[in-house]
């Protein structure tokens, strides 16, 4: 069984000391929990799969596909971007950009956006992949850019949000947030609505910004640093916040899960839980992939813990997604694990990529789209 390398701070993550460009990992190796046996209640049906180009490399990454309309978009680490039909996986267009990609694509309103390691944002037409514009950003972007009708918004590793006109590429506004000296590799990805952008930062702060001018509407501390050392006081928000049933849910590494009323900017409840992943919602619950790779379900209204699944410990799981009556995660050995939303017991398992899955998965119309580390995009259904 393949061993998983742990950094001193989190599974498969390297620590970054801001300003120095230094990356470090401990030599400690932790073996993942073995797969548990269970009687499958559902079966996985692979609808189609497609090669997106090169594999996604050995580094921790945030590559993930994006959906807009009847197409799904994906890219590899060498700057190749492709569009596929959601119905049958037919390749609609294929573009090779002269960049090294640092994260996944964002898509929306006719635009597909991708960031380069060199600090460049590239916007493409979703119809044929032609370049609409290119713009420089101040540093690397590792999370997928987010798009609304007017803007393309990128969250940078230096704590900035930079917003560009979706059509022209003109810079519209910039928001700056102070970044601690010690952070996890990666950033959250913002939520971009019609009027407001909501983003979480390595400082543990969650901020709502006006899309017209980039002015702060409100900000809250979603996580409170504790401990004496910089390592102990890390409270990064690396997972994308979640809007569900009128509430905003945010989680942080070594911090807490909080529910916020986004209209009043009021924290409704909090639970101590550590996570550097995004969240999912369903059945009145919010689901968290904890930093130790446990899965936990909390009641959205009361914050009560509904169930906790610990059998995937040390398997380097992804953010959860909900599919039908199940909640699903993938792991570093490429297995998809499907659990009941009611009580967390396993109902199905399927290995989708022998090289593993690190980027987040997406669901649309009850179909699960998974981008594996080998460079395969797979569409699946659960029956």
Task: Please give a structural write-up.
This protein is an all-beta fold. Helix content is 0%, strand content 45%. It has no helices and 37 strands. It is globular, with a radius of gyration of 19 Å. Residues 1-27 have low confidence and may be disordered.
Distinctive features:
single chain; 383 residues; mainly beta
Brief characterization of the structure:
The protein has strands spanning 4-5, 15-17, 22-24, 29-30, 44-51, 66-68, 71-75, 80-85, 91-96, 106-108, 111-116, 120-125, 131-136, 146-147, 151-155, 160-165, 171-176, 182-184, 191-192, 196-200, 205-210, 216-221, 242-244, 247-250, 256-261, 266-272, 279-282, 285-289, 295-299, 305-309, 321-323, 326-330, 335-340, 346-351, 362-364, 367-371, 376-382.
Overall shape: it is globular
- Total beta strand runs: 37
- Arithmetic mean of pLDDT: 90
Q: Number of DSSP helices? A: 0
Strand content: over 45%
Main sheet record: 4 strands, antiparallel
Binned, the helix content reads under 10%
Strand order of the largest sheet: 5-37-36-35
Question: Which consecutive residue ranges, at least 5 long each, have pLDDT under 50?
Answer: 1-27
Give the distance, in angstroms, between the N- and C-terminal Cα atoms: 29 Å
Task: Tell me the layout of helices and strands.
Elements lengths: L3 E2 L9 E3 L4 E3 L4 E2 L13 E8 L14 E3 L2 E5 L4 E6 L5 E6 L9 E3 L2 E6 L3 E6 L5 E6 L9 E2 L3 E5 L4 E6 L5 E6 L5 E3 L6 E2 L3 E5 L4 E6 L5 E6 L20 E3 L2 E4 L5 E6 L4 E7 L6 E4 L2 E5 L5 E5 L5 E5 L11 E3 L2 E5 L4 E6 L5 E6 L10 E3 L2 E5 L4 E7 L1
Antiparallel strand pairs: 1-4, 2-3, 2-18, 5-37, 6-7, 7-8, 8-9, 10-11, 11-12, 12-13, 14-15, 15-16, 16-17, 19-20, 20-21, 21-22, 23-24, 24-25, 25-26, 27-28, 28-29, 29-30, 31-32, 32-33, 33-34, 35-36, 36-37
């Amino acid at each position: 069984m393949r061993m998983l390398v742990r950094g001193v701070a989190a599974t498969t993550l390297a620590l970054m000391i801001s300003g120095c460009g230094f990356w470090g990992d401990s030599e400690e190796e932790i073996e993942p929990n073995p797969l548990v046996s269970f009687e499958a209640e559902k079966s996985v049906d692979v609808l189609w799969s497609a090669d997106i180009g090169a594999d996604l490399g050995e580094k921790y990454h945030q590559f993930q596909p994006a959906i807009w309309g009847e197409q799904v978009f994906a890219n590899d680490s060498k700057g190749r971007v492709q569009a596929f039909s959601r119905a049958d996986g037919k390749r609609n267009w294929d573009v090779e950009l002269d960049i090294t990609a640092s994260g996944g694509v964002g898509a929306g309103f006719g635009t597909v956006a991708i960031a380069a390691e060199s600090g460049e944002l590239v916007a493409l037409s979703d119809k044929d992949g032609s370049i609409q514009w290119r713009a420089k950003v101040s540093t690397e972007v590792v999370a997928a850019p987010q798009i609304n009708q007017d803007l393309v918004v990128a969250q940078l590793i230096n704590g900035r949000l930079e917003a560009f006109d979706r059509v022209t590429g003109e810079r519209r506004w910039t928001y700056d947030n102070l970044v601690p000296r010690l952070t996890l590799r990666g950033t959250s990805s913002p939520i971009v609505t019609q009027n407001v952008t909501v983003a979480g930062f390595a400082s543990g702060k969650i901020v709502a910004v006006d899309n017209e001018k980039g002015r702060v509407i409100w900000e809250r501390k979603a996580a409170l640093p504790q401990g004496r050392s910089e390592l102990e006081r890390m409270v990064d928000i690396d997972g994308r916040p979640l809007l569900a049933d009128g509430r905003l849910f945010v989680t942080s590494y070594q911090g807490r899960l909080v529910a916020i009323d986004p209209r009043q900017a009021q924290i409704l409840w909090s639970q101590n839980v550590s996570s550097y992943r995004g969240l999912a919602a369903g059945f009145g619950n919010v689901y968290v992939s904890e930093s130790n790779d446990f899965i936990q379900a909390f009641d959205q209204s009361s914050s009560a813990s509904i169930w906790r699944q610990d059998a995937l410990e040390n398997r380097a799981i992804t953010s959860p997604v909900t599919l039908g009556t199940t909640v699903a995660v993938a792991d570093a050995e490429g297995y998809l694990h499907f659990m009941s939303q009611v009580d967390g017991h396993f109902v199905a398992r399927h290995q989708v990529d022998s090289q593993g899955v690190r980027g987040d998965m997406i669901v649309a119309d009850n179909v699960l789209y998974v981008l594996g580390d080998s460079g395969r995009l797979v569409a699946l259904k659960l029956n």
